[in-house]
């Protein structure tokens, strides 16, 4: 505050209003900063505390920061030490600060000087310093320029984000766009810019302008394109019933079928799924039971459901239908079965004896129907491979189509014997200690007795008579010579 000369000349004026208003016009809002003084004759100025002023780059400003009660039209208002303030100016005799904020600044101050035009010996001068912050203008950044939603699939996405500006930012779209989104089951969150909801209808690509605005009504905008793909539908399927084992070929008719769809029956995937067109899919039913929903799901998660669209039929009774009339020539019968027992594991061969002149169509072992490859038929016997079963007797039935049941025979399943435990080997006794061998005195070897000479037989011939003679002597007698 500047010095006030002639302060001793101050005269109280109870009817005067002493005030000063520092106001920031922000859209329709205003910040009132009371600072007061009197300009009546023989009165002095007084000041109040300074207050901060926060603006935004790009904001249009028209502020009357100081008003003077009982003032004169030629009182002067100036900005101390400056002819402008971030692109703003002050009216010389109105005190109105106006213009468009051009640049940003933080925690700055400016001083307003008011000079009294009274005829006092010395005119009065009053100053006021104000704290000022100018924020950058809001910025709108496009996050998703083009977005396609799917009918029936819950969506949540933010097409644009805002930053900078002054205070909390708000997001908005035109009233026409609000109505459009609402008609499709969507809405915009004004605090976050989030678009969410479950689209209920299709929408061709539509441009929507979204705006982010700060508390000083300074804004920025972006344009994005939004479209909605209609959810698929199922009108009908070619077969509404089929066996529990599956395998029924289905033709599914509807709309909106897209590439790589999945098809389920009661939550179980079908096989051989083929997209024929946007309105036709073929598939083969999986195994299942009861009445189930049929569901088609596109790759983009669009889903169509036919509630209770397919029913699995329970298998019919296993007894084959009899022939229209028995053939009197058929005298087939069962005369015996061997063996009559076997383990519950099955897999063993059983020979059924009898007369089997016509082709056997089916064989039941208890409640189990054998595969046609599980028996071999001759005119006098049938050899079957027994299935696994439960311990106890069962009835074997043979059907030949000529009579309801060609014949029956009993067979008993027994539990396999438990394997005998392996014998525990007896412990091997430790070897007894052996005494040291007693040395034996050596006996001289006996002198071998010469072997007896073997007797020799000679055939001798008489020198004169030429007669032969056999002798055992070593040489022929006199008158003989060795032959």
Compute the CA-based radius of gyration: 61 Å
Task: Please state the average pLDDT score.
Answer: 78
The termini sit apart by 184 Å
Shape: elongated
Number of domains: 4
Looking at CATH, which topology of the largest domain would you report? Immunoglobulin-like
Percent range for β-strand residues: 35-45%
Q: What structural class do helix, strand and pairing data support?
A: mainly beta
In spatial order, strands of the major sheet run: 20-27-26-22-23
Low-confidence stretches: 1-50
The CATH C-level class name of the largest domain: Mainly Beta
Q: Report the biggest beta sheet as strand number plus sense, adding barrel if it closes.
A: 5 strands, mixed
CATH architecture of the largest domain: Sandwich
Helix content: under 10%
The CATH superfamily of the largest domain bears the name: Cadherins
The number of strands is 39
Number of helices: 1
Give an overview in words.
The protein has 483 residues and is mostly beta strands. The chain has 4 domains: 129 residues, Immunoglobulin-like (Sandwich); 91 residues, Immunoglobulin-like (Sandwich); 80 residues, Immunoglobulin-like (Sandwich), CATH 2.60.40; 82 residues, Immunoglobulins (Immunoglobulin-like), CATH 2.60.40. It is 2% helix and 44% strand. The chain contains 1 helix and 39 strands. Strands 20-27-26-22-23 form a 5-stranded mixed beta sheet, with no helix packed on it. A 5-stranded mixed beta sheet has the order 29-36-35-31-32, with no helix packed on it. The chain has a 4-stranded mixed beta sheet with strand order 3-9-8-5, with no helix packed on it. The N terminus is likely disordered.
């Amino acid at each position: 505050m500047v010095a006030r000369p002639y302060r001793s000349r101050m005269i109280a004026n109870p009817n005067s209003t002493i005030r000063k208003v520092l106001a920031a016009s922000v859209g329709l809002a205003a910040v009132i900063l009371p600072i007061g003084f009197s300009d009546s004759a023989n009165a002095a100025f007084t000041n109040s505390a300074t207050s901060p002023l926060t603006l935004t780059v790009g904001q249009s400003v028209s502020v009357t920061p100081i008003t003077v009660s009982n003032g004169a039209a030629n009182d002067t208002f100036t900005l101390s030490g400056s002819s402008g303030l971030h692109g703003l100016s002050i009216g010389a005799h109105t005190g109105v600060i106006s213009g468009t904020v051009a640049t940003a600044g933080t925690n700055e101050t400016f001083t307003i000087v008011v000079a009294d035009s009274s005829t006092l010996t010395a005119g009065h001068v009053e100053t006021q310093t104000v704290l000022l912050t100018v924020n950058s203008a809001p910025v709108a950044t496009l996050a998703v320029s083009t977005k396609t939603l799917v009918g029936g699939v819950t969506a949540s996405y933010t097409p644009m984000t805002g930053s900078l500006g002054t205070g909390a930012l708000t997001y908005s779209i035109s009233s026409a766009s609000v109505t459009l989104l609402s008609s499709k089951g969507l809405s915009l969150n004004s605090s976050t810019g989030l678009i969410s909801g479950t689209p209920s209808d299709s929408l061709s690509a539509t441009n929507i302008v979204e705006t982010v605005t700060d508390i000083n009504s300074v804004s920025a905008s972006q344009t994005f394109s939004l479209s909605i793909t209609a959810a698929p539908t199922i009108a009908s399927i070619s077969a509404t019933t089929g066996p529990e084992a599956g395998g029924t070929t289905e033709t599914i008719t509807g709309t909106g079928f897209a590439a790589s769809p999945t098809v389920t029956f009661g939550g179980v995937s079908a096989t051989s799924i083929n997209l024929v067109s946007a309105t036709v899919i073929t598939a083969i039913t999986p195994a299942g039971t009861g009445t189930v929903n049929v569901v088609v799901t596109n790759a983009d998660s669009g889903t169509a459901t036919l509630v209770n669209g397919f029913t699995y039929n329970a298998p019919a009774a296993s007894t084959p239908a009899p022939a229209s009339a028995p053939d009197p020539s058929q005298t087939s019968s069962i005369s015996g079965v061997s063996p009559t027992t076997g383990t519950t594991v099955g897999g063993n061969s059983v020979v059924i004896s009898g007369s089997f002149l016509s082709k056997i169509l089916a064989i039941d072992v208890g409640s189990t129907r054998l595969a046609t490859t599980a028996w071999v038929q001759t005119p006098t016997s049938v050899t079957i491979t027994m299935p696994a079963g439960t311990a106890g007797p069962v009835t074997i039935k043979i059907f030949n189509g000529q009579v309801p049941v060609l014949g029956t025979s009993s067979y008993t399943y027994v539990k396999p014997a438990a394997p005998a435990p392996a014998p525990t080997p007896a412990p091997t006794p430790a070897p007894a200690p052996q005494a040291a061998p007693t040395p034996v005195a050596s006996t001289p070897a006996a002198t071998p007795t010469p072997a007896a000479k073997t007797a020799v037989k000679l055939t001798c011939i008489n020198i004169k008579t030429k007669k032969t003679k056999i002798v055992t002597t070593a040489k022929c007698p006199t008158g003989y010579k060795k032959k």
